[in-house]
Specification:
By secondary structure, this protein is α/β, with parallel strands linked by helices. Helix content is 40%, strand content 13%. The chain contains seven helices and six strands. The longest helix is centred in the middle third of the chain and has 25 residues, at 123-147.
Length: 225
């Protein structure tokens, strides 16, 4: 008798997923300074709204770098004594994504397609709602870029925005909640991070689970495009 394949996503259920979203390697700030601020804000948040489970830092395939999100998340994980879970796009969507991902101290690795099965409600309908909202936001951003004389956002923005929002929505449903924090107080309107508004607007991420980075002079206003 052939055994059924194990749903690796279920290994997330005993954890509280933590999402840290922000700039990539073009972030010029010292990672230790940013990580320290994030840990400080998270601890304050959890003192009021306890996660109630061991923490799992969710990372989404950024290559190892000396600056930016891939340098910040390991520091936060270390300070919090948390495990790390890597979620990548499937090879059929972006064959370079998983190949280039930083896997240091990763205890669980998943693919986008696996998390689709854990979207809340009618999964197909929920995915369609996310895709529609991402496409609407992309169109609005490209219209603003056109007015500014800037080129349209690259095609990959859609895939990575979907990865970001599907992962949060699926984890929120699977683990009964998530925590989300950005690496700065201000988010560039033309960044993948800025698509966080999609999950909030669709009530797939609870606004009470969004933690403010706070205003301390750190800005994410850089537009690398």
């Amino acid at each position: 008798m052939t055994s059924l394949p194990t749903d690796l996503c279920l290994r997330l259920a005993p954890y509280h997923p933590v999402f840290i979203e922000g700039m990539g390697s073009y972030d010029e700030r010292q990672p230790a300074h940013v990580a320290g601020r994030i840990v400080e804000q998270l601890i304050k948040h959890w003192a009021i709204k306890s996660p109630g489970k061991p923490l799992m830092i969710m990372i989404q395939g950024d290559p190892a770098a000396a600056r930016g999100i891939s340098a910040i998340t390991p520091l936060v994980a270390n300070d919090l004594g948390a495990s790390r879970c890597l979620v990548c796009l499937d090879n059929a969507i972006a064959d370079y994504h998983a190949e280039n991902a930083d896997r240091k101290n990763v205890s669980l690795e998943l693919r986008y397609s696996q998390l689709l099965h854990h979207l809340p409600g009618a999964q197909t309908d929920t995915l369609k709602r996310i895709e529609w909202a991402v496409d609407e936001e992309l169109d609005a951003k490209n219209q603003r870029r056109k007015a500014l004389g800037k080129p349209q956002l690259e095609d990959y923005f859609r895939s990575f925005a979907l990865l970001q929002e599907v992962t949060k929505a699926a984890c929120a449903a699977l683990c009964d909640g998530v925590t989300v924090i950005h690496t700065s107080a201000t988010i560039s309107e033309f960044s993948v991070t800025s698509f966080y508004t999609v999950g909030l607007a669709l009530n797939l991420v609870n606004a009470a689970d969004m933690v403010s980075f706070g205003s301390n002079g750190c800005s994410d206003s850089v537009d690398p495009l």
